[in-house]
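Re: your question about Heterokaryon incompatibility

S., sorry for the slow reply, the queue was backed up all week. Below is exactly what I fed in.
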Amino acid sequence: MDYWIPSRLIEINPSTRLRLVTRDELQKACPDGRVNYFTLSHVWGQGQFLTLAKQNFEDLMKGIDLSMLPQCFQDAVLLTMQLGGRYIWIDSLCIIQDSPEDWVTESGLMHRVYSNGICNLAASNQSSSNPGLFCRRDPAMGAPFTVDCSWSDHFESITVFADLFEVVMLHAPLYRRGWVTQEQALSPRTIHMAAFPLWECRQRVFSEMLPSKDYCVKYGPLTKTSKFCFGAKGQDFEEYWGNTVAQYSACALTKESDKLVALCGIAKALSEHFGQEYYAGIWASNLLSGLLWQVHKFTNGVDMNTTRYATYIAPSWSWASVKGPVYPFSDVITEPLVDILAVETQPRDGDHFGQLKGGTLTMGGVMFKFPPLTLLMGDWDSFTRNASSDEWALGLDDCGKHYYESETWFLPLALAPDVSPREGLDIPGILLQKATESSTRSKFTRVGYAVVNHDGEIAGSGWFVKNWIQRPWGQEHYCTVTVE
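Result:
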C-alpha cells in the first residue's frame, strides 16, 4: 500500500525539543512509507509569532524551542505527545510563508495533508493562536440535569441535555474561518478543543459530557457521516456540495484571493473519487443547477451587504465571484431550457481548482428583455408591482449597486416544480447585462438571480408568462450567449 507523506512536518522528541523535518528525512526514517502525524486547525489572529521562512529554514531544521511558539501550538505539541504522536503538521511552520511558489504548491496539497493525517486538533474556541487549546470551565455547565414535572394526570421526569454540538460547531470562532471548512471535512478524525470537547470521525460525533449521544442523528448534514460520504452519488453528491458551498461562503477569509484555493482540497478529493470536471466552484454533473445560486441577504437577522469582489476572483456566473453567503439551488430540475455549449476557466498558476484569471460560459437559449431594473437588491415588492401579476422573486448579486444604467435580460435556465403551497411551476434563471460586444456574439455579465412562478393559467398573467407561454419559440429566437 502506498502512503502519502507531507513535504514537511514538525518532529516532536521526548524532551519536547522540536525540529522541522522534510519528506526525504521521513522516507528514510520510515522505510514502509507510513508516517502517523497529527494536524492543527487554528485561527492566526493579528499577533506575530514564529513562522517558517526562507531565512530560518535551516535553523528550524536544527531545532525549535517549544517556548518560542504561541500557547496554542505548545498545547497542540503536548497533546500530540500524550496521544502517542511523534509528528504534527502546522501550516505556519510547514509552509514557507515568504515563498509564493511554495504556498501555491502546498495549498494545492491540502486535500492530502488533512485526509492522510491520523487526527486533527481543532482550536475551536480561540480567535487567535495566543490562547491555548485548553480553557477553564465549570463541568456542571454541560452536564445533563433532570426536571420533575407534575401534570394533572401523571408525573414524569424529563432529562435535559445541552446541545453541545450546536454550541461548538455552529458558534465557535474557528468555524467562521474559511480555510477550516476543508480542514474539518477532510480530516478522518477531529478533536474539537472547546469548553466541552467533541470527538468527530467519519461515522460518529460524540461529546465528553454525553458520550452515548451521537450528534449525527440530529445534525447529519453538518457531520462527516453524511456530508463527506465518498460513496454518495447523484442527488446525495449535489446536496453535499450545496451544503458545503453554503457553509463555506458564510465564512471569512483574510485574503480574498483564497476564495477558491481554500476550498480546492475538498474539490480535488471529490474530483479524484468521481472523476468530474470542476469549473470555478461548480461541477460539470450539475452545472445547470450550479448556475442558479443566489445571494443570502440576511444571516441571523444581519444584513450581509453582499458585493462583488473589487479584484477578479471568479467569473460572474460562479458563486465564488461574490463576497458573502450564498444559497445554492436545491430544487429538482425537470427540464433544462438552455444548451451548455462550452465552459472554460483559465487558471492563474496552472491549477484549475485554484486561483483563476478568467472564465467563460457559452449557452444557447431564449432571452427576454427585462423591464427597467431600477431597484436595489432585495426590493422584491417594488419589482413585483412593476412586473404586473407574474409572481417573481429575485436577488441582485451586488446589493450596493444600481443596475438601471444598462439593459437587463432574463435567461430562463430550467423548469422546476414549485414546492410551496401555491404549487405550479417555477422557471428559475439568471439576470444578465452586456459586458462587451464582439464580432461574433455578445458577452454578458451575470448581475442576479430570478425565478417566476406560473400556475398554469395564462389569463391575468404578466409580461413574461404571456410571452413565454403564448409565443411559439422556434430556432429564429434561439441565441448564443457568452457569460464572463
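Residues 335-483 form one domain. The radius of gyration is 26 Å.

Happy to talk it through on Thursday.
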